[in-house]
Amino acid sequence: MAELGALLGDPARANMLAALMDGRALPAGELAYVARVTPQTASGHLAKLTDANLLALEKRGRHRYFRLASPLVASMVESIMAVAAIQLPARRAPVSYMDDRMRTARTCYDHTAGRLGVGIADAMAACGYVVFGEDGAAITETGTGFLADFGIARDVGRRSRRSFCRPCLDWSERRPHIAGIVGAAILDRCLELGWVEKSKDTRALAITPAGARGLDKTFGIQFSSTTLPTLRRIASVANAAGASSNLNTSRTSGRNAPVR
Amino acid sequence: MAELGALLGDPARANMLAALMDGRALPAGELAYVARVTPQTASGHLAKLTDANLLALEKRGRHRYFRLASPLVASMVESIMAVAAIQLPARRAPVSYMDDRMRTARTCYDHTAGRLGVGIADAMAACGYVVFGEDGAAITETGTGFLADFGIARDVGRRSRRSFCRPCLDWSERRPHIAGIVGAAILDRCLELGWVEKSKDTRALAITPAGARGLDKTFGIQFSSTTLPTLRRIASVANAAGASSNLNTSRTSGRNAPVR
DNA sequence: GGATCGCTTCGGCCGCGGCCGAAGCGATCT
DNA sequence: AGATCGCTTCGGCCGCGGCCGAAGCGATCC
Known about the structure:
2 copies of one chain form a homodimer.
Chain A: H1 2-8, H2 11-19, E1 26-27, H3 28-35, H4 39-51, E2 55-60, E3 63-68, H5 71-87, H6 89-92, H7 100-104, E4 106-108, E5 111-113, H8 114-126, E6 130-132, E7 137-139, H9 141-150, E8 166-169, E9 176-179, H10 180-192, E10 196-198, E11 205-207, H11 209-219, H12 234-243
Antiparallel strand pairs in A: 1-3, 2-3, 4-5, 6-7, 8-9, 10-11
The structure holds a DNA duplex.
C-alpha cells in the first residue's frame, strides 16, 4: 500500500491520473503536457504507473496511448480526490486551479459532475426522487417515474452487475452527485437530447443553449450564457423546482419515498 | 491529491493507517511500534497525518490517542488496499507479512473480513441470499428471511443513512465480503453469540470452539482447531451448505432472487 | 519532591527519487 | 532514402524528506 501511495504522491503522476479519470486514453505527449514535465520525465512516470498496473498501454502507430487500467483504479483515485477536497482545504484553500468550465460541468468517469451534476442531484433529492445515505443512494418509486418521463427506460441496467445508483462525492462542489447506472443514463440522455456536448480533449461538458433551457425547465438549474454566476444552491433550487415545470408533480418534501 | 498521496506513500504512515482501520484509537507509542520506527520519528508522521485531517487526536492523561478522522478516510484507505491487493501481486507476490490469524478472521472497520468474511459472503451468495454487482450488492428476499433466522432483525438499520449492504474487497482473500449495515449486523451477531472475540490490540478476530461449530452449521465454513488448513472455496462451500443445515431451506442456485 | 514515563522538538546525516540534456530507436511521411 | 516525429533510455545533478540521538516538557507515580 505504501508503494501505491508513493506512486500517487507525485504531483506529475497525480495530474496524469486526474486527466485520465474520464476513462479516455491519452498519448504520452499529452500526459507530459498536463503533468507539466518534459516527455522524458513523463515517460519515466508512465512506465512506473504501467508497471504497477494502474495504467494500461495501447500502442497505435508511433503513439502510445495510456488509460486507467480498471474501474477499480478510477474509484480509488476518486475516493482520494474526495478526501482531498474535504480534508485539506483548511490548510490549502488558496484556489484550485481547476478551470471554470470544468467546475461548471464535466464527466466523472461516465456520469456528470460539477455544478451540473450536483445541481441534478440536489433537485432530485429535494423532490424526493432520490435519497442519499452515508455510503449509498437509491431512486424512490416516484423517482423512477420521473426518470421515465425524462426518457430513461424503467428497466435500464436491470441486468447489469453495476451499482444501480450510488453517490459520488464531487471534489469541486464538495457535495454528492449521482453515479452508477442511473448517473450514466442521465448523462447519456443529456447527450442524446443535445443538452450537453463532450469536449474532445478535456472532461469538460459544454452546455448548449437548448441544454440551458431544458436543464432549467426540468431540474431548475440555471446557467447563464457564457460565464456563469453562482448556481442557486439547494434551498433555492428546491423552491425554484416547485415553481417551474416537471419536478412539481406530486411534490413531496424530504426523504420519505411516496408511492406513485 | 498529490499531497495526500505522498502522505500515504510512506511505509511507516501506511502501517499506522492500516492499524487504525478498525476504528479504534491507539496511543502514539503503539503506532510507533506497528510502524517499526522510533517514537520521535512516529511523532513526526503523526503530526503530518493529523495536520492533513486524516487522523483525529484525543488526549488522555499523558497519552495521546489517534484514530481515523472519518469514515471517508477509512473508505479511501480501503479502496487503496483493494487496488494494492489486486494490482501489485504480479510484481511483488513474495508473501505478505500479514499474520495467519489476521488472514483467518479480522474486523474491517466494523464488519468481518478475511477467510471468515469471504466465507460468509460466498455461502450466502451461493444460496442466493445476497447478490454482488460490480460496485454494489443487495440482500434478496430469501436472504432477509435467512438473516432473520440468524437473529438479525428485519428492520435493522432501516432508518440509517448508511448503505444497507455493500461489497468490500478483501485484500487478503482478493474477493468481496459483505459490508454496510448488514455486514456490521453480522459481526455484531457473531460477537453476541460468542462465536468470535475481538482481540485487544489487533484487528484479528478469534474464533471460539462454539463459533467453529456454529459457523460450520450455519454457513458451511470450517475452521480447524488452531492453525487452519485452506478453507474450502466457493464451489465446495456451496455444496457443503446444501448438505448441512440452515442454508438449504429453499435452496436455489445462483443469482435469481426467489420469492419467499 | 524526585523519578519515571509518554511524547515532542531540534539538528544533522544520508539516500531515494524527480528532473532535464543528450542520445537512441522505431514508425511515418515525402 | 532521408527527414521528422513520438517516445524511451542513459547519466548526472540536486533537493526533499525520512531517520535517529539528544534534549525538553508536561503528566503521573510514589
